[in-house]
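notes to self, project folder thing:

trying the whole complex as one job this time. last attempt i did each chain seperately and stitching them together was a nightmare. two parts in total, labels are on each line so i dont mix them up again. if this works i'll redo the older ones the same way
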Amino acid sequence: MLSRIQVPSAARRGEIIPIRIAIQHPMETGYRPDHFGRRIPKNVINSLVCRYNGLIVFRAEMGSGIAANPLLQFYVVAADSGEFVFAWEDDSGQRGSERAAITVSD
Amino acid sequence: MSNRRRFLLSCTALAGTALIAKSTFAQDDSQRTALLREVTGSAPVNVGRVTVDTPPLADNGHSVPVRVLVDSPMTTDSHVRRITLLAERNPRPVVASFMLGPHSGRAEIATRIRLADIQEVLALAQFSDGSWWMGGAKVVVTELACLEGG
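result (full assembly):
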């Protein structure tokens, strides 16, 4: 699964920084028929976790109401230099992950 | 046109739009209560502190940008734990839940959702003291995220 995360590469300690992630995924609703009129089974990214230096800072539980190619934006307080690690899974059991480094100065 | 005629015309027009607005956004109260209970359990839901930011008119129901802002200091003692997005007229009304904490710094999330009908998008926020607050925004969708086809 292709994805892109936007995390500022540098921040000051205590600064509230925006984090954005976009994942390429059809987010199949389960209501859509294919060319033969059969229903395409529901397959959405149902959970996503963001860890900042190991600590869970954001978690999302999603359903078919989230648009295809989900885009999420949230905020985090810059604490220490380190890494943001995203991990997600869809209904078919397929997993994806992405990471980004940040340098935090005083 | 005479003043009187113009006045009467504007009156009917106004009444008409009010009627449309009422019928398109009207939501069965008992259904809403049941849905809220599904999310919050038996906890009461207060109205306020949550702002839902959407375009009032969305061209495409397949992807409607939504931003939720919650009035909270986001400290260890007082913060938002969870934000749940609801679209009552979607086949699956619970759209998503987002878990936040004091490390978030700001109680704000943004995403893009599907809307199967013209409706009010609701956001519920659970605070660290366990209380629930709700806000909403009405969205008119010109091309619905239909159940068949697209």
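what i see at first glance: The interface with chain A takes residues 62-64, 85, 87, 90-101, 103-106, 108-114, 147-150 of chain B (CB under 8 Å).
need to look closer tmrw
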